[in-house]
Amino acid sequence: MMEKSFVMLKPDAVKRRLAGRIIARFEDRGLKIVAFKMLQIPEDLAMEHYQEHREKPFFRDLVDYITSAPVIAMVIEGKDCISLIRKMVGATNPAEADLGTIRGDFALETGRNIIHASDSPESAEREIKLFFDESEICSYEMPDREMIYEE
Ligand code: GDP
Ligand code: MG
């Protein structure tokens, strides 16, 4: 099924100038970027985005980290792409992430794990709405679509 996922390159990815290489992985896979912006996340948006973790001991550090510098927020579209992108991202703790995953190749610690991706259709819908207006989500055809998808 065609899905949209919310993907965010965190401040460490931006400051380490890894954005192009990370984005290229999604493009190379055949996924389609349908929304894209750089922003410095205000504290209230950070707290809303990570609301499920508000009682965790790391919550304050997480909010400080994610608001410390600009992020790149994206909506990425593709067949079953929510779980696919989670696989490409790798485990939350980069030290345990498989080699070949984004976190496994570019990061070392949980508190600096460079990228966020939605973990379910419900969180994707919620997160996309938090960061993007409907009007900011683009629709276009990939000319090589038939080379990527069988149907
Ligand atoms: P994710 O879905 O793989 O990003 O992981 P979670 O939803 O469990 O956690 C959200 C984010 O909180 C992670 O990506 C980390 O940036 C951060 N985080 C999670 N666990 C810890 C922790 O134990 N310590 C710190 N400093 N940050 C954490
Ligand atoms: Mg999560």
From TrEMBL:
Main location: cytoplasm
Record keywords, A-Z: ATP-binding, Cytoplasm, Kinase, Magnesium, Metal-binding, Nucleotide metabolism, Nucleotide-binding, Phosphoprotein, Transferase
GO molecular function, one term: ATP binding
Domain of life of the organism encoding this protein: Archaea
Pfam families: NDK
Binding-site positions, ATP: 10, 58, 86, 92, 103, 113
Domain Nucleoside diphosphate kinase-like positions: 2-139
Protein EC: 2.7.4.6
Reaction catalyzed: a 2'-deoxyribonucleoside 5'-diphosphate + ATP = a 2'-deoxyribonucleoside 5'-triphosphate + ADP; a ribonucleoside 5'-diphosphate + ATP = a ribonucleoside 5'-triphosphate + ADP
Subcellular location: Cytoplasm
Active site: 116
Keyword Metal-binding attributed: yes
GO cellular component: cytoplasm
Gene Ontology biological process terms in this record: CTP biosynthetic process; GTP biosynthetic process; UTP biosynthetic process
Signal peptide annotation: none
Cofactor(s) the record lists: Mg(2+)
Family annotation (NCBIfam families): PRK00668.1
Function: Major role in the synthesis of nucleoside triphosphates other than ATP. The ATP gamma phosphate is transferred to the NDP beta phosphate via a ping-pong mechanism, using a phosphorylated active-site intermediate.
Record-stated family: Belongs to the NDK family.
HAMAP family in alphabetical order: NDP_kinase
Protein name listed in UniProt: Nucleoside diphosphate kinase
Provenance organism: Methanothermobacter defluvii
Primary gene name: ndk
